[in-house]
Write a structure and sequence with these properties.
The chain has 201 residues and is mainly alpha-helical. It has one domain. Helices cover 85% and strands 0% of the residues. Helix 2 packs parallel to helix 5, helix 3 runs antiparallel to helix 5 and helix 4 crosses helix 5. It starts with a helix and ends with a helix. The model has no long low-confidence stretch (mean pLDDT 82).
């Protein structure tokens, strides 16, 4: 039972590694994510193997099964040790990409705000509003311009709200990667290291 859980982790990793795309950031992130998310299952399996060995052979000292638990735990701890800096680098790259996208949106929003002061743009909005029937043709020029500005203001407010939501989503995703990814990898690294030591003590 315990060994089957470890084998399931191995199969999951083999399925990912078969793609062999180490040159791509997304592939490295997928490998790290697979190892971190599936390692708890392997940890439970190794614990079951160790407990079974302790119950079957309660005498002190290492046995072949305990050495197997030690070696497997050490290998997984090594894998997680490699995963920690890999996860940090991937997190930095993804955060940079998200920040660049947000900066681009902010730049577009700033340009759109500047268009409020451009009479030609306002006249174009007035013409489009009249064609769509949103601005009455009998309205004065000042009323038409005011209606156009109000329309543009509403559009800018919606864009600003969407930008704020995108920033919150980006912050949430970054926190999830740091806590759920790197933090979990460190905890599992410690757990597998301790398990490897306990197995042969």
């Amino acid at each position: 039972m315990g060994l089957s859980l470890v084998l399931l982790l191995a199969l999951q990793l083999l399925a990912v590694l078969a793609v062999n795309g180490w040159g791509e950031e997304a592939f490295r992130q997928l490998v790290a994510t697979t190892l971190v998310t599936q390692s708890p299952m392997a940890l439970v399996g190794l614990l079951l193997m160790l407990l079974g060995s302790r119950l079957d052979e309660p005498q002190a000292g290492p046995t072949p099964l305990r050495w197997v638990v030690c070696v497997l735990s050490a290998l997984l701890a090594l894998g997680l040790l490699i995963t920690v800096p890999l996860g940090i680098n991937s997190d930095r790259a993804l955060s940079d990409q998200a920040n660049q996208a947000l900066q681009a949106q902010k730049g577009q929003l700033a340009m759109a705000k500047a268009q409020l002061q451009n009479p030609q743009v306002i006249d174009q909005v007035v013409a489009q509003g009249q064609q769509a029937g949103q601005i009455p043709a009998e309205a004065t020029d000042e009323q038409k311009r005011q209606a156009a500005k109000s329309f543009m203001d509403r559009q800018l407010q919606q864009a600003n709200t969407q930008l704020q939501q995108a920033e919150r989503r980006s912050d949430l995703a970054a926190n999830q990667r740091r806590i759920g990814g790197t933090g979990t990898a460190i905890v599992l690294l410690v757990a597998f290291t301790l398990l490897a030591l306990v197995a042969v003590l």
